[in-house]
């Protein structure tokens, strides 16, 4: 991990014109950076503006105030430095697995041989090589999500923005996918911002965890996860200190206190 | 499909039995109920008329003319419908400005246009955002997302359009002209030749059925990626 900053939010505020007269402030004055090779998780109550931050980072939203930077460049709109992955796999049903993985690089107009080379290499890495010719409906939920990960990695982004990528798959599959993601990120030295509701996922996958308040979302805590083996979340689960981190996060999110339901069970 | 062969066999047997019952009811039912021949001619009379028209009245010529009109109307109407569906789907202003005029143009055009329009409007916005995040241009979003996503509803519209095209053509032939199955329909009625009317209706059913079948075959070719049901519905 170097000191190069890959992703930075500088005093970002986002207001939406809502039906109610006042409008709605989703996030307020958020500043943080993610350094090269770092994996940072963002947790917070439902509706605290986590996904808004991600959309700002990918250039889909323009913040009402403040700015986002990727690779030192101000984000003015969608750009090839970032790629995102959502809870929904968003695979195109009319494309085979291979064609889905090539979707991003095709839009970015890479030459066909290079597209194919990258897609095949990624499918190989994610143990999907034999399914290259299948259609998405022929795959399980976990496999579809792996294809989505391959599609995200195929454009070789500097920063991956992951919005609850595994919350729609079953618990066992999720652990396997988490490990694959962790290994892939480590191997490729990728930088990632991960949004999650799963406190254990945040602790086991990240170098740092940022805690957001309820709306309007602000960063209220930052926790460095001082655990070895960031590339093996399953091993990390065994580490005794994991519980301390999770307990601290629960405390910061007011979980378990009377009258609070700070973290929504679902997205 | 494996495992379905007994179902297919049973289904076919029931279909054939049903056809036999209907044909028998047509042949002997009206007589038993005392319905005059000029209202419902029995099957055998219609068949005799069919053979007579084949030999004397140029039935195949009339059928051919109608079939060509159906194909032309269907192709033109559908193309126009799809075109306007895409244009209106992408521009709410255009929809507002053009809708009153389009409502006046119905038949084959309409179901295609409505289906395409709805399909474009209901494309998952996250899919479009995904493409945009990959720096897709407007044209790329259309050709790589919106157009392929609109194909299943487009074909549903084409199925309806293929049968409505027959209706449109017949209405046209009934009103004017001296050729086509619609003309034979009106002519037979004028002559009190109910058997001729039935023959015309039968041939119209055949033309409509073939048009519908052609759409289904094209659909299975284009939408091959959709999960197959156990029995391919028609």
What does this structure look like?
The complex is a heterodimer of chains A (267) and B (234). Chain A is of the alpha/beta class. Chain A has two domains: 177 residues, Rossmann fold, CATH 3.40.50.300; 75 residues, no CATH class. A six-stranded mixed beta sheet of chain A has the order 6-7-8-3-9-10, with helices on both faces. A four-stranded antiparallel beta sheet of chain A has the order 2-1-4-5, covered by helices on one side. The longest helix of chain A has 18 residues. The radius of gyration of chain A is 18 Å and the shape is globular. The C terminus of chain A is likely disordered. By secondary structure, chain B is an all-alpha fold. In chain B, 80% of the residues lie in helices and 0% in strands. Chain B is built from nine helices and no strands. In chain B, helix 3 packs across helix 9, helix 7 runs parallel beside helix 8 and helix 7 runs antiparallel to helix 9. The longest helix of chain B is centred in the C-terminal third of the chain and has 38 residues. Chain B is elongated and about 70 Å long. The two termini of chain B are 16 Å apart. The model of chain B has no long low-confidence stretch (mean pLDDT 85). At the A-B interface, strand 6 and helix 3 of A face helix 6 and helix 7 of B.
Q: What distinguishing features does this structure have?
A:
heterodimer, A: 267 residues, alpha/beta, Rossmann fold, 2 domains, six-stranded mixed sheet, four-stranded antiparallel sheet, 33% helix, B: 234 residues, mainly alpha, MetI-like fold, 9 helices, elongated
Structural class determined from secondary elements of chain A: alpha/beta
Instruction: Find the biggest chain interface.
Output: A-B, 25 and 19 residues
What number of domains of chain B? 2
Looking at how many chains there are and whether they match, the oligomeric state comes to heterodimer
- Shape label of chain A: globular
